[in-house]
Design a protein that fits this description.
alpha+beta; five-stranded mixed β-sheet; 226 residues; six-stranded mixed β-sheet
Length: 226
């Protein structure tokens, strides 16, 4: 079975036949799920029926399916999936109690609206790089109300990017430092489906995930001194 067929089947909550690598991780609904048992159970609780009209973009090592307001993005190795992301509507899952503290995401004290190294994304053509960069920059600068209050600082990190023919996909993690008196650090994933004609960006659309932000906002960290 191809990775595409396996992902369609998994989305319905069906157990794959060896298409999930043992260390596979799914990030969805503001939580992380490791291994086949947890991933299959997650899709059984929130199945997704992928229609024949969905938009599929494939490139060596990458696969993305756009179905309505939901996006599935996968890292692929020899038709087996090693990492999965699900973006779109959904409620945060219960997670183990954790202490969230501010951190410098890339530990480089770098500045700017977007972190992007083209050499880290060999499946992204050179002509698509400036368009992906512009999309990521607009995500960082255009924080929307559904992702919480205006950010004290925000930055987009390009996680995956690839294109084939005239279509391409870019997956970003947009991190922010909240402005409230009780500071919060959070992020959301955003997937961009874009189309080019020649070297020009013709159109793009964004599907973003607010579950990560919702989970963090429900459990803000407060320092307590005794």
């Amino acid at each position: 079975m191809s990775a595409l067929d396996a992902l369609r089947s998994l989305a319905r909550g069906e157990r794959p036949n060896g298409e999930l690598l043992p260390p596979c991780r799914l990030e969805a609904f503001g939580s992380e799920f490791y291994g086949e048992e947890a991933i299959v159970q997650n899709f059984r609780q929130a199945p997704l029926n992928i229609s024949e009209h969905s938009t599929v973009v494939e490139a060596p090592g990458h696969l993305a399916i756009f179905e309505g307001e939901t996006v599935l993005v996968a890292d692929v190795f020899d038709d087996a999936m090693s990492r999965l992301w699900r973006l779109g509507p959904g409620q945060p899952m219960e997670t183990e109690p954790a202490l969230g503290v501010p951190f410098d995401t890339d530990l480089m004290q770098s500045r700017g609206d977007i972190a992007l190294r083209a050499e880290d994304h060999p499946a992204l053509s050179r002509k698509a790089v400036p368009h992906v960069e512009a999309i990521g920059r607009s995500l960082a600068r255009g924080w929307s109300p559904e992702h919480g209050p205006a950010a004290y600082r925000s930055r987009s990190f390009l996680i995956r990017a690839f294109d084939h023919g005239s279509s391409g996909v870019a997956l970003f993690a947009v991190h922010r430092l909240g402005p409230a008196a009780v500071r919060s650090v959070g992020f959301f994933y955003a997937a961009a489906l874009f189309r080019m004609e020649g070297d020009e960006l013709v159109t793009h659309r964004i599907v973003s995930d607010g579950a990560g932000e919702a989970a963090i906002d429900s459990a803000l960290w407060r320092a307590r001194v005794k």
